[in-house]
Design brief:
- The chain is an alpha+beta fold.
- The protein is built from 5 helices and 9 strands; from the N terminus they run H-E-E-H-E-E-H-H-E-E-E-E-H-E.
- The protein has helices spanning 8-29, 54-71, 119-134, 136-140, 215-218; strands at residues 38-43, 46-51, 76-84, 90-100, 152-159, 177-178, 193-201, 205-213, 229-232.
- A 7-stranded antiparallel sheet has the order 6-9-5-3-4-8-7.
- It is globular.
């Protein structure tokens, strides 16, 4: 049963579940919040850490729901978890890129897609993504900030050209607002360094994960530029 190819909706559900786990993992491994705020869990047969703070969890799940609403419509180009300092300067961008490989009519989104991977195969790929994320400190080093500074995060949604966020049908999640340009991938300077972590071709929507270290993190001397859509964290 697990070898049945994914449907469009199953691919979207699997990807958004992974993104939610990945956001918690990023916040833990980059020490955005104290370690004792997280509890050890298991997902995709690998240990993960999940926030146990109700307000933070509600914020993350609401944000992921908003991303899912756009992903199911095929609107998403990138979703970025931005790690920033107290002056809102982007230090690291964890970039989830989506590429739709097929077009599926709305009435066919619960039909298995020929040659797509199965749910079990997708879970194995996401396991390798999380293993990479859990080891990211060895690649990026500790996130070091001046005394008195502290890191926070925002989620930025970059949509495909000529699209805008669809209207939410409820009060949740918080509404998308225009993003600070230097939080987006297009706002990164040429001196920023990009590291590809993992990619997967599901046969429906391709997903890749990369992390970008900003120029301000690598050379902490300049003021940020000012001015996609984001939900602040």
């Amino acid at each position: 049963m697990s070898e049945i190819p994914l449907t469009w909706n199953q691919a979207v559900k699997g990807i958004t579940e992974f993104i939610e786990v990945a956001i918690h993992t990023i916040l833990y491994v980059r020490q955005i919040y104290p370690a004792d705020l997280f509890v050890r869990r298991k997902k995709y047969d690998t240990p993960v850490f999940q926030s146990r703070h109700p307000a933070l969890n509600e914020y993350i799940s609401g944000t992921v729901k908003a991303v899912s609403d756009e992903l199911v419509l095929g609107n998403v180009d990138k979703m970025v978890v931005v790690i920033k300092d107290k002056n809102q300067v982007a230090l690291e961008r964890f970039i989830f890129s989506a590429q739709n490989m097929i077009e599926v009519e709305s009435y066919n989104k619960d039909t298995s897609v020929q040659d797509a991977m199965s749910s079990a195969q997708l879970g194995q790929y996401f396991r390798s993504f999380l293993i990479k994320l859990n080891m990211i400190e060895s690649q990026l080093g500790l996130l070091e900030l001046p005394i008195g500074d502290e890191a926070s995060f925002a989620v930025v949604l970059e949509l495909k050209e000529n699209t805008v966020p669809s209207a939410s049908k409820s009060n949740e999640p918080p509404p998308w607002v225009p993003a600070d340009r230097q939080h987006t991938t297009s706002g990164a300077s040429e001196e920023a360094q990009l590291h590809l972590l993992r990619a997967v071709d599901t046969g429906i929507i391709n997903i890749s994960l990369a992390v970008q270290e900003s120029e301000q993190k690598l050379q902490p001397t300049k003021d940020p530029d000012d001015s996609a859509h984001d939900i602040e964290g």
